[in-house]
Amino acid sequence: IQWKRQLNQLDLAMRLGHLRVFFIVTIKQMQIQGKIIMYNIIQALQENNSTDELKNKVNSLPIEQVANKLQLKLTKTGTSLQGECPTGHTSQNGKCFSINTQQNYCHCFHCGTGGDNIELIKISKRLEFVEALDWAKAEFNLDDISITNSNSDLQNISNEKVDKEKQLKGM
Question: Using alpha carbons only, how large is the chain's radius of gyration in Å?
Fold first, then answer.
């Protein structure tokens, strides 16, 4: 649809003899759009780096500590912890869920759910990924890493986008 609109504009500009003006305006619009896209890419990369850093910190915590903070009722059997699956399904012997404390992962032999510390938090608290990171950040005092923008940052980003859109419409 965008290409059709640009072709219609090109056809109209050629008919009116304003081809040069059309190309200058189009190039300026593309430059502004390119800057907006680059700004969004940089923001996403910065956010992704801090998210990865927090994810690595959460997963480096001993899974036993995470399970204790989640108040899971588990019994120690050798090098693992066993108990009911935090998803809430019933099990025959009450020990279908296992946490391997040496390799830092969990697994339910009944439903197949399991994974790292973040997955354990997501399962137990029924949270999404970012919410699980926020919970872990609060519970384990990992305040030195920021994964979300503050309201003022979001407002600034929003204002910049509105200003750039106004510039595009003005050309």
Answer: 26
Give the N- to C-terminal CA distance of the chain in Å, as an integer.
Answer: 20
Q: Is 2 exposed, middle or buried (0-12, 13-18, 19+ CB in 10 A)?
A: exposed
6-42 pLDDT tens trace = 667 666 655 555 545 555 566 667 667 767 776 666 6
Contact of 82 with 95, CB cutoff 8 Å: yes
In the chain, how many H helices and how many E strands? 6, 5
DSSP per-residue string spanning 36-105: HHHHHHHHHHHHHHHHHHHHHHHHHS-HHHHHHHTT--EEEETTEEEE--TT----SSS--EEEETTTTE
Q: Residue 50's Cα: distance from chain center in Å?
A: 10
